[in-house]
Write a structure and sequence with these properties.
This protein has about 350 residues and is α/β, with parallel strands linked by helices. The chain has two domains: about 110 residues, Aspartate Aminotransferase, domain 1, CATH 3.90.1150; about 240 residues, Aspartate Aminotransferase, domain 2 (3-Layer(aba) Sandwich). It is about 35% helix and about 15% strand. It has a seven-stranded mixed β-sheet, sandwiched between helices. A three-stranded antiparallel β-sheet has the order 11-12-14. The chain has a two-stranded parallel ribbon with strand order 1-13. Helix 4 links the parallel strand 3 and strand 4. The longest helix has 22 residues. It is globular. It starts with a strand and ends with a helix.
Length: about 350
């Protein structure tokens, strides 16, 4: 019986990718060696890195002004790394506070220099995306988080600003088209739509670097990694390899545009049921609802939770418990999730309604 994996991350990846990746652990590229034991400077792995970078550029239409990197440390490392590279000693970074991850990014910058929050939705437990805020065009950069896994909100339209635009796209990268040319830096942990944890995708505008005027530790300097093609030190080889396979799968299935259509169809199916079913209520503002992470509550948890959880378990639905700061349920519907998994969850919701 199929397990429907709604985990927020690490999360579902395509079954075809798992199969090919598992085979590579025994015999990669007909070398008689595992992908995790070959030299990262071998022809076979250099080809993997080159293809992964090329696929990112292809799928997101990355302009020649930008470099693509695969780095370690997760997206959380980028909170400090971007500040070292963009925040000058006498300048300031500006932040849009839409959840736990943007708050952590702000904290790292504030520890290094001047940083300020231009708008926040903390007053409502981050259940909406602030609007109508002002960005200082003279700021060193403006930082936002495109999708908030914990709270189920997503930026639908990015702000216009003369300040360098930086975005954490960890949980919705490759789920929809993005105009990369508008961003000076995009970063994303791999473990959502891209691959297993261990690698972080960075897309950075080359001429935006080298302007902070501060000492940058070697490993935190984007130019270090650009000059060595993401191989200044041993890269996370398996994560990069699986990311390459996932990008192949994405391209073969219509690319980012087709993924967006599928994601919108899945999200519509679930949100329509949340809105229709009197036993449930969504937690995020309707106009800011994420297509990746749908957060919802039972209107009467004491009366219905036990029965609903039993239905979920019976249908092999996994990973739908909400984050402890929100409670309730969270259905994460990343690129690799099929529509039938969302339908299985919706069937449980309808069954619960019919029961009561």
């Amino acid at each position: 019986m199929k397990t429907h994996n709604f985990s927020a991350g690490p999360c579902i990846l395509p079954q075809e990718v798992f199969k090919e990746a598992s085979e590579s652990l025994i015999n990669f590229d007909n070398l008689g060696l595992s992908v995790i034991e070959i030299s990262h400077r071998s022809k076979s792995f250099v080809a993997v890195m080159d293809e992964a970078v090329a696929l990112v550029k292809d799928q997101l239409q990355v302009p020649d002004t930008h470099e693509v990197l695969f780095l370690q440390g997760g997206a959380s490392m980028q909170f400090a790394m971007l500040a070292f590279n963009f925040l000058s000693e006498n300048g300031k970074g500006q932040y849009l506070d839409t959840g736990a991850w943007s708050a952590k990014a702000y904290k790292e910058a504030a520890g290094l220099g001047s940083a300020e929050v231009v708008a926040s939705s903390k007053d409502a437990n981050y259940n909406y995306i602030p609007k109508g805020y002002a960005i200082d065009d003279n700021a060193d950069y403006f930082h936002c988080t495109s999708n908030n896994t914990i709270y189920g909100t997503q930026i639908k339209e990015f702000p216009q600003t003369e300040a360098p635009l930086i975005c954490d796209m960890s949980s919705d990268i490759f789920s929809r088209p993005v105009d990369v040319s508008k961003f000076d830096l995009i970063y994303a942990g791999a473990q959502k739509n891209l691959g297993p944890a261990g690698a972080t995708l960075v897309i950075v505008k080359k001429d935006a670097l080298g302007k902070s005027g501060r000492y940058i530790p070697t490993m935190l300097d984007y130019n270090t990694h650009i000059s060595k093609g993401s191989m200044f030190n041993t890269p996370p080889v398996f994560s990069v390899y699986v990311s390459m396979l996932t990008l192949r799968w994405l391209k073969a299935n219509g690319g980012v545009e087709a993924a967006q259509q599928r994601n919108e169809e899945k999200a519509a199916l679930l949100y329509n049921e949340i809105d229709r079913n009197p036993l449930f209520v969504g937690t995020a503002a309707v106009e800011d609802r994420s297509t990746m992470n749908a957060c919802f509550l039972l209107n009467d948890e004491a009366a219905h939770k036990e029965a609903f959880d039993a239905m979920i378990a019976e249908k092999n639905i996994s990973g739908v418990n909400g984050h402890r700061s929100v409670g309730g349920y969270r259905a994460s519907m990343y690129n690799a999730m099929d529509l039938d998994s969302v339908a299985a969850l919706v069937d449980c919701m309808k069954e619960l309604e019919n029961k009561f």
